[in-house]
Amino acid sequence: MDLYSEIILDHFKHPQNKGTLKKADKEAEEINTSCGDEIKVFIKLNKEDYIEKIMFEGQGCAISQATASMLTEKLLGKSKTQVLSLDIDYIKSILKVPIGMGRIKCATLALSAIKRALS
């Protein structure tokens, strides 16, 4: 198993920022109806619209849950504008493993929820 696959499994088994956020400014949920993966995000913004705190809850495959964990770490301190400009290429850059067409929705589920919450 390569290093990046191990990192994904580690985030899946030991997710960062998992849980609810009381007094969240924004929240949204996304469900992948094709496989049942679920992500709900909770975001606290500062006065300048930068992410001050971000957490998630969910269940699903290793890719969807690990990506949510990784994103909550990477997006802390980013502006709303920066986050809304992110796309699948950003997800691929943090996962560092090939994502097949059948797994794109799993890999982007958390980002979709985050963008929906911020929109």
Notes on the structure:
- The protein is an alpha+beta fold.
- It has five helices and three strands; from the N terminus they run H-E-E-E-H-H-H-H.
- It has helices at 3-13, 62-74, 80-84, 88-95, 104-118, and strands spanning 26-31, 38-45, 51-59.
- Strands 1-2-3 form a three-stranded antiparallel beta sheet, with helices on one face.
- Helix 1 (3-13) crosses helix 2 and helix 2 packs across helix 5.
- The model has no long low-confidence stretch (mean pLDDT 93).
Keywords for this entry:
single chain; 119 residues; alpha+beta; Sufe protein. Chain: A; 3-stranded antiparallel β-sheet; 5 helices; 3 strands; 19% strand
Average the pLDDT over all residues and give the rounded result.
93
The helix/strand series, from N terminus to C terminus, equals HEEEHHHH
CATH class category label: Alpha Beta
Percent range for β-strand residues:
15-25%
The biggest sheet amounts to: 3 strands, antiparallel
Number of helical segments?
A: 5
CATH fold descriptor: Sufe protein. Chain: A
Number of domains: 1
Question: What helical percentage do the residues reach?
Answer: 40-55%
* pLDDT < 50 runs, ≥5 residues: none
CATH architectural group: Alpha-Beta Complex
- Determine the N-to-C terminus distance: 38 Å
Shape: globular
What spatial order of strands do you see in the largest sheet? 1-2-3
- Work out the radius of gyration: 13 Å
Number of strand segments? 3
**Class of secondary structure makeup:** alpha+beta
Topology:
Layout (H helix, E strand, L loop, with lengths): L2 H11 L12 E6 L6 E8 L5 E9 L2 H13 L5 H5 L3 H8 L8 H15 L1
Antiparallel strand pairs: 1-2, 2-3
